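S1.2 Input.
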Amino acid sequence: MVLDLFAGPGGWSHALSVLGARDVGLEWDAWACRTRQRAGQVTVRTDVAAYPTWPWLGRTKGVLASPPCQAWSMAGKRLGLVDQPLVHQAVADLAAGRDTRARILTACQDVRSLLAAEPMRYLHALNTVGEPEWIAMEEVPDVLPLWRQYAAVLRPWGFSVWTGIIQAADYGVPQTRRRAILLASRVRTAKPPPPTHARVAEPESLFGPGRARWVSMSEALGWGATDRPVPTVCAGGGPGGGPEPFPSGSRKTLSDARDRGTWTPRPKGTTPPSHRAADQPSAPAAVSVTGAHRWSWSLRSNNQANATVRSIAEPAGTLFFGHRANECTWVAEPAHPHVGTEDLVAPDPIRISAREAGTLQTFPADYPWAGNKGQQFSQIGNAVPPLLAGHLLAPHLGVTLDPDDFTLAA
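S1.3 Output.
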């Protein structure tokens, strides 16, 4: 059995299923559990910190752990860094069979910080029966010192251990998502999988098999390098035509020049005709346009001044959601800003859809997300990209990963 702590909506689990294996996931969030249920994944809804370890003894081959990252993430207050000495103390105590969590928890600035020590409680118990055979853990980069402490504990227990920072884009994920990884094994030398992609493509040579160029958002979403991310936008619709509202919540009239990547501009001062909500938007009759204009589309991570903005011809920045979930938007600007653009009105920013965000996290386009848009975004942002998980898991399972099995755009 593979035990998946903090299983979330199934990033590790989906990778395992593609590779021909399954896990049992422990997860507290009700909507993540509902998503897992829809995806056919075995789940125990529970608090990982309260669940006993004895049911897993004598039956666990692998352990996965992606503790909640909110206490450590750049997107939050990062109180986990303040609590880090306490978390290190908890790990040391649990590794020695002493449960001091209740006392340490009272001193933590963020109660979620201590969840990063929970995997050691399970690992200590499993080690008493010579388990597990292998371990894989993932977190935000600031947790790397903690993973190194885990490694120092695991090596005397008979594990080969590797810890380090991995760039998800180097493994075909259309997102520059950096994560701290721990890989451990009792039966093989632990090491990271060889990268398959690079910022700039590298040809095959005597020194290696070569690497493909990083996967762009347009490639992952099936748009093509010059496509615009607005297939058909109705009143109240988002990129992909779903019920996702525009940022203002109001109706917007878009051109119906549906030749992919082209927008028919509306000169300033003109007013488009009204449309019934059930109608497809069409080019405004009052507009006199001599030619179409091509726009360049990008994804903006939030509305802060330091937001990451990436062209669709590049991978996305790290997707994170929460209170800024609905601020991750597609934005447009003239592709040729010096060619008669002074009187053009750019399309309004359009929120990314959950389907698109999930695809950029390498979940299948039809993955059965549960909950409202905010709940879905939260699950997506916290999940392990399944394609990255597949690369990390394949050596432990003794199988060869075929990236084509992780289809993205439908």
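S1.4 Remarks. DSSP finds ten helices and 14 strands in the chain.
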